[in-house]
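Researcher: Before we compare anything, I want clean individual predictions. No alignment, no superposition, just each chain on its own. First chain goes here; please echo the sequence and then give the structure tokens.
Model: Echoing the first chain and its structure:
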Amino acid sequence: MCATCGCGNDAEHVGIEGQELTAQHEHAFWTEGSSRPTNQEGGGHDHKTLEIDVLSVNNQNAQKNRQAFHAHGITAIQVLSSPGSGKTTLLEHTVGRLQKDQITMGVLVGDQRTDQDAERLRQAGCEAKQITTGSVCHLDAHMVAHAAQHLSSWPDILFIENVGNLICPALFDLGEDARVVLLSVTEGEDKPVKYADMFVTADLVLVTKVDLLPYLDVSWERFYQVIQEVNPGAKILPISVKTGEGMGEWIAWLLWQKERARLTHPLSTH
């Protein structure tokens, strides 16, 4: 059970690419000087261990992930939203656009069950690894380190698609350079206020499925106003993968994030 939010069932376990992580699994944390995550003996955990500040441990692991990503020239982008807002569809349409700029992308996908989203992304032309979380409602940095171990090569941009949920994922740093939160117009303009923690942490908010706005009693201006009230510093873009609206701005933002990471972390090899 997750000691932070209480989600999860002790009878279920996290899976990485179909391999179950049991209580006795080995840890694959990034270590200084290593080219890939290295295994460390995990050992058993008693109840006292579970009393450790989970977020503090997660933040330490996230920092290891971030350092390792930068050492290999990887720009990591975490993608968050409620279920059905279009995370996987957006990434499917992003693969080809980045390939035109000779940018490689990889995806670590979090879902409670099935590898359907990872398979969709592989069919779109990028490497994707599935993390199944069982009854846990979010990814953590530990899971990300394990999943990254399964990548066959380092991508220029690594997307970490979190489990669809507007609450708990907001709390967990995964080692990303930037956070993108999707909000579909069909969800209503009140979600940024109701789930403010999620939107406060966003660097970019994509208002998706804007091609449906003519059929709804909400407006783009109202979405923009509400999001800006919650997070004045976030960039806000309307987007529709169906019509292509906003895709150019989305790709430009990604390329800037990659350039920003290269300038900020000059030891990057890319």
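Researcher: Okay. Second chain, same rules.
Model: Second chain and its structure:
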Amino acid sequence: MKSLAALLIALMIWGLGLLAFTGRVDQSTPAPEPPTADGVVVLTGASNVRLEAATRLLEEGKGKRLLISGVNREATRADVQTVTRAVKPIYDCCVDLGFAAANTVGNALETAEWAKSKDYKSLIVVTADYHMPRSMLELDAAMPGVKLYSYPVKTDLNARRWWKTSLSARRMIVEYCKYLAILGREAFLGLGPKDKDKAAPAAKEAS
């Protein structure tokens, strides 16, 4: 009986969390105008709207350069320019393409490497509304010293009435479960020793 009660409580907490998650996604768009940052990164996906939005931010001077992370390896620079609708001089000078990432973890690692190579300390992150919470967790974990500004882009997914179609419901539930998994991972990692890399040099200096 106690096991059943615990299961019901866990399901209730999970359900309330799902509602909070979908409400957050629904209220995240339209996104407010972000502050100027060192760079802009957009995570590719099914829709090209996010690419257009990121390109607009670059053209408005919101960042010095734009990284498009997760580009199809068979795509050329010309192909991507057509999708972004970028002005050619700006595209040629200030858009970098990342072909290494195959998922959100890869996006985060690719972005961290790019930001480090440019010595960027702040980034505007552009991706789909439902994808933004998980992306911010992954990006923050990959580069904790970089200030991140989210710029979610509204998708065809109806975040307010997500339960009305099987496609929306499945996408929201899966995304929520992935989000919880990363929260759990980061909480677990947070239990371990901190700043091991920093501690070693400090010890050497002290000696």
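Researcher: What stands out in the second chain?
Model: The beta strands are 39-43, 65-69, 95-98, 122-128, 147-153. Additionally, The first strand starts at residue 39 and ends at 43.
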